[in-house]
Structures are given as C-alpha cells and as structure tokens.
Design a protein that fits this description.
With 180 residues, the chain is mainly alpha-helical. The chain has helices at residues 45-58, 65-82, 96-126, 131-140, 151-161, 176-179; strands spanning 5-10, 22-26, 36-37, 88-89. It starts with a strand and ends with a helix.
Length: 180
C-alpha cells in the first residue's frame, strides 16, 4: 500500500498537540518514484570495442570481425557477472516535487558557499592579515602552547600558596564564651 500513496502533505491547522494531520491519496497509478540507485554500467561496449580495435591496429595484428565481437561479448558477460547488484528503489515519499526541491536547495547552497569563498579570497588579496589569515591560523594553531614555567616561577607559586607562619596574617583568637 505504501507504494500507492501519492499527493501527501502536512496540513497546517490549529492542533493542540505537537502533531499535525497528514493528507494523502491512495490510488492504482499513484506515483512514480524519481529513480533508483541501481548498478553502474562500468563497461561501455562501443568505446571499449573502438579502443580494442585501435590497440590491434597499432600493433599491426589482424583479428577476424567474428572473433573480435565474441571477445568483446565475452569480456562484457564476465564483467556483468562480477559486478554486484545493489538495486535500491527510492523511498515512497521521494517523488518528483521532492527531487526538484532538493536540486534547487543544493544549487542555492553551492552558490552561497562559492560566494563566501570568493569573499574570503578577495579579503585575503586586499588584506593579508585579515579574516583569511585568522581562519587559516585558527586551524593551524588549534591547540595553545603548553604552559612550562621556569624553576623560579614554580618556586614563587609554591611560596605564595604555602606561606610560612611568619608570613601568615595573625588571626584573633575568639573564646567560646564570646561567641555564645
């Protein structure tokens, strides 16, 4: 039944949940999938035959047309058998309209990406130390250098953290009776 679903759309209306209603039609000739991802034709017979003829002509070897045709057909048969077949039909929701929208979206995304790259290239041409430099250096220097203090600095840090009794501030002693 899924293959016969056509003209589906999400209805926009006042719904008191996060769900929306979906309208669709079921018919005999419902929809045609845009395509299928089938096997690739790895061997083009005509081009292969022409290359093989050229190869034999360069080496001045003569081969009968019948033997030549049989050789090409045999190679084609063996290649076809060795190619795994992965035929997947497109999902039921992927129709011509979805294909058009997807194609348009990809075109616009690529156009936007190209324009941003052109801006970045122009910025790099105009100002060598501008955004282009910052982006490149951000990727090159992704980690900050490690902190390696000198021995004197380590000693100073230890003295500040662990002060001797003469350096500590004097605290006023409070008796228990004063607190209560």
């Amino acid at each position: 039944m899924v293959k016969r679903v056509c003209k589906w759309e999400v209805l926009q209306g006042e719904v008191y949940t996060y769900h929306h209603h979906i309208y669709f039609e079921v018919g005999q000739n419902a929809r045609k999938a845009v395509g299928s991802t089938g096997t690739y034709r790895l061997l083009q017979k005509q081009e292969f035959a022409q290359k093989l003829k050229d190869h034999f002509q360069k080496r001045n070897r003569k081969i009968s047309p019948n033997a030549f045709t049989n050789t090409v057909l045999d190679i084609n048969r063996k290649c076809t058998v060795s190619i795994p077949k992965h035929i997947h039909t497109m999902p039921y929701w992927f129709d011509e309209e979805t294909q058009k929208l997807r194609t348009e979206c990809n075109k616009r995304r690529r156009k936007l990406t190209r324009s941003h790259w052109k801006k970045l290239q122009e910025d790099l041409e105009n100002n060598v130390w501008g955004d282009g430099y910052r982006i490149a250096m951000r990727h090159l220097n992704s980690l900050p250098p490690p902190y390696n203090p000198t021995i004197e600095r380590k000693a100073q840090i230890l003295r500040e953290l662990f002060k001797t009794s003469s350096q500590r501030p004097q605290m006023k002693h409070v008796w228990r009776e004063e607190v209560v």
